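Recap quiz, item 2
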Amino acid sequence: MTLDRELLAEIWPLFVRASVTTAWISALSMAIGLVLGLLTALARLSPWRPLRLVARGYVELIRGTPLLVQVYFLYAAAPYYHLTLPPIVSGVTSLSLYVGAYASEILRAGITAVHKGQIEAARSLGMSYWQTLRRVTIPIMAALVTPALTNEFTGVLKWSSILSLITVPELTYRAYQVIAESYAPIEALVLSGLMYWALTDIVAWGGRVVERRVTRHLSP
Amino acid sequence: MTADVPAVKVVGLHKSFGSLEVLRGIDLEVRRGEVLCVIGPSGSGKSTLLRCINFLEEPTRGMVYVNGEPIGFREGPDGSRVRDSAARLNAMRQRIGIVFQAYNLWPHRTALGNVIEALLVVRKLPRERAIEIGRRQLARVGLAEKADQYPSRLSGGQQQRVAIARALAMEPEIMLFDEVTSALDPELVGEVLKVMRQLAADGMTMVVVTHEMGFAREVADRVVFMDGGVIVEEGPPDEVLGNPRHDRTRRFLARVLAKGDDGSSVRG
């Protein structure tokens, strides 16, 4: 098997641009998903039962159905509510909701693992719930959850390929386009695969940098 | 505020955890500048009493007043209890320091970082000012040179002294101590008690839940003996510890002092 170098030379700028799209879609979904996940985790730990149930229902729904179905559903259902979402908005929304549900479980585990006394110490000094969360709970739990969240982020990069089905011009969408136009599946797939791999490595490297930072106090 | 308003006043305090009734009617006053030691067997409710004073535990019934103001609840127009706002509770908590058995330092902050955190976040002081106060408080507990160490690099006794400095930095009017030497290696207990003794000498109002009978005898103005969720006996240390009126107190002291023979509990 030999790769068509001429074709590769022709398509790679397109793939680089598509990688940028994949990267920012994933990063944005991860960022929104983290906020959503944190709120969901807090809701699940709330003393107020209705809030717990809503949060649990959301996690169940997202975890119980395929991402593919969710992405299609939001895109197809929105017009019935007189809501025309551009594919990229619809796609990022779906992906964020998906990340939020999974991240909430990682964050819930992290929050639960923070020593209750460290939170009480903050409250006893007059810090509010949100001040305590921001200054004590999140930084302490960051040391625990960074590896799992990095893993989640590397997953998002590849899950975002599903957005190709609703015509978001990301990496996989472009690959399919090249396949359809030039019938060169190997070149397109190999190139997109390498791009995903590179993006994943960048995220993993970033994760290690963050991890070193948030575990600074643990190293001798 | 007039001098005769008690620093802490506890009225008809009950606390249950599910079906377990831990406090069964506590009435108590702590005068300003007084050092009150609370002793009693484990499970007697003394830590719960302490934690009700700054509302880390919500009383099931009864009220706690700090400097004459109810904490955690307001009195409604019909005399009933109404949950107070979070903002007011946070404001009141700034005036009550507490030190825990498990130190509870924040691992991601240095010793100084722990001490200045609430000054920055709650009191909103400029960083330089907070650091100035923080260094002074660390010096006060003898840890000026450990300011930049993370808690994981400090001994238990040092961590506990940082925890005391952290509470003192907020300039509380009352300090609560919840068995603060119980988790320490015996040879580290003395350095923490020394800091507390100095604090008492400086006139701080202190409520100290402790197993250190020597400390209670020497430093306390008054000793309260609790058992089964009630106050069994209270009075000057000489009386309660030296010549207890109640059988339960006598039995408890006999047990504790017997343990003290191996050096684990009686320490001055």
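The first strand of chain B starts at residue 8 and ends at 17.
The radius of gyration of chain B is 19 Å.
End of item.
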